[in-house]
What does this fold into?
Amino acid sequence: MLPDKWTDVRERFGDPRFPHIDHYAPCKARIHIEGEGNRELTENIWSAAKRVEDCDRCGVTLQVLSTLPAMFSYWAKPEHAHALSQILNDHLAGVVASHPSRFTALGTLPMQSTELAILELERCVKQLRMPGVQIGTNVAGRNLDDPGVVAVLEAAQEFGAAVFVHPWDMVGAERMKNHWLAWLVGMPAETALAIGSVVLGGVLERLQRLRIGFAHGGGSFVHGVGRIEAGYRVRPDLCATAAKAGPREHLGRFYVDSLTHDPDALRNLIRLLGPERIALGSDYPFPLGEHHPGSMIESMNDLSPTVKQRLLYATACEFLQRTPEQ
It folds into this structure.
């Protein structure tokens, strides 16, 4: 979600690389990202009323808001990224305050500065009362086992904040300019790289109480875990340099969402992770999302009512540390 009245941060910070939003017609806007051109936005990007209407139509009682990954801006000067994070987080907190029974929100952080990221994380949790934050799968090319990133994750554990990881700045994107491959192939690979970094980097072993989740069913990591496990066993000199336990032993230590677009892929996630680690994912309001959140889960007659309950809301409540009644 984004504010309906957009501050021109390109002009404010004197940098044309920041995204720009142009409300060119009623209920319509374009976001311009340097190097990507324009993308169309509709009013559900900024209208809380429209979102409530959509949620009511789909039977969604609580929606978790976050900013667009295009706003991460990890390439920017730390003070500029920090100011933008504050604008976005204050807006999300305001939306939640106006509809406390319908929305909660995950903040965004200036991850290029460990100090400023921890400062904004603390503000999100203690002042804005957010249950956690959303971060990217890498920070300007630094993986999630980078010491500066791990320090932020350590602070999240200390503050009891959930961390949701969303792919952006995809690995190999320069070779995926055609056929929308960056979104179709690059995003799953980028997410697998992020999970591989915290698993083989020993981050999850070090931060046992960290609640960390990954978008889009964890990308391709879980479905390729056999190969990763094999590498860990046959080349410990390369793969077992930081983690003491193999990849399969980490499968219960992180969360993923359910957005796999394929019942068999979701069944595999349930088999390997258990429904206790899978939360409903919608990718709302974008085209690759599930247009009626939860419909695939509800259509899977082989899943028990208890498993469906877990997937549709109970795991999400656990990740966010709230009860269904909240």
Notes: The first helix runs from residue 9 to 13.
